Amino acid sequence: MIKSVFVVSSFIFISFIYLNNPELNGYSVDEKGEDRFTESNYPTIQPNDIIISKHFNFSLQLGVMVAVKVDDNLLRKRIHAMPGDQVHICNSEVYVNGMRYMYSNNWVGELIDDRQKCIKRNSVFFLLNDEYFVIGDNEKNSYDSRSFGPVKKADIIAQSLYVVRFNDYNQQVIPLAVTFSKSLIK
């Protein structure tokens, strides 16, 4: 009996170490409990969601959600602009190559508004070969590249693949990558 308890508890301990060590298996599981939740990506990520991330051979494409290291902090943001893209910040709104992509618009791009309306901040720049512009899905409440600037490829440590959400009746597994599309309206 003692031997079987030891074997089972050893298996559980080793499994726990393996599952919580991305250096070993390439994946991580992160729970956003009430104490660790931020509104930066709400409603995409909600309190008590579980996020599954990949740490090796991950994709760096538009619409992918990534974990990025900024000033010794880990942040989860969505890639909005890639190397070579033109980024235009106007009154905290971000336009990439003349289009604005937002969660609230189901990631369908909107053409840039009149640049004369830029009062608070108006900057236009191109991303370098190893730079990415990342923004939280909750644009109005997100600490992101609008504050700290583009991030280097070396500072992106993982791609967040799925959110697992439990509610009263079922469990949902929701892919976190989205597709940016251009508006058909001109």
Molecular structure report:
The chain has 186 residues and is mainly beta. It has three helices and 14 strands. The strands form three sheets. Strands 1, 2, 3, 4, 10, 11, 12 and 13 form an eight-stranded antiparallel beta sheet that branches. A three-stranded antiparallel beta sheet has the order 6-5-9, with no helix packed on it. The chain has a three-stranded mixed beta sheet with strand order 7-8-14, with no helix packed on it. The longest helix has 18 residues, at 2-19.
Which descriptors would you attach to this protein?
186 residues; mainly beta; eight-stranded antiparallel β-sheet; three-stranded antiparallel β-sheet; 3 helices; 39% strand
Q: Detail the poorly predicted runs.
A: none
Query: What does the largest sheet look like?
Result: 8 strands, antiparallel
Q: What spatial form do the alpha-carbon principal axes imply?
A: globular
Q: How many beta strands in the DSSP annotation?
A: 14
What's the overall average pLDDT, rounded?
83
Span of the ends, CA to CA: 73 Å
**Number of continuous helical runs:** 3
